Fold this sequence. Notes:
Butyryl-CoA Dehydrogenase, subunit A, domain 3; 9 helices; mainly alpha; single chain
Amino acid sequence: MATSPKPQKPPVLQYDEQLVNLYEERYLPHVDRVYRFAFALTLSLETAYACVKATYQQAAVKLPSTKHLAETGILPLLVETCWKVYQDAGYSQSSGGNSGLSSALKPLSISERASLAAVDVVGLSTADAAKALTWPEVDVRRNLAQARRTLIQDKPQF
């Protein structure tokens, strides 16, 4: 009588403990600021969540190549990744909710919102924002100035 082969166990996934710790200690603390950046781009809670989820999935893939990156380089890298995810996925601007924030940001162009969020919300310097958005710094400064001008002129009611 022939015996049936033993069922094989699924392969055990091996994680590099150092990379897992790096992800938890250096990437996850920035999730709130990355989410705020994504919301400024999309004006939608759900779409911002999807954008941030994809951002962190892509960031996880890059962990081995970024483990020697200085702490100050992590947040610009995450903003850069989020911006690329936003562009590649073709997320469109939501009609926005009824919140004062959505109403204030809606009149701004996407480049103005991206510059404003990268500098005033996330806290990047204009030089780091320019690298993350892959624009010349003068464009970031111009967009930022226009966004601030529009916000001051419109005086949204929060």
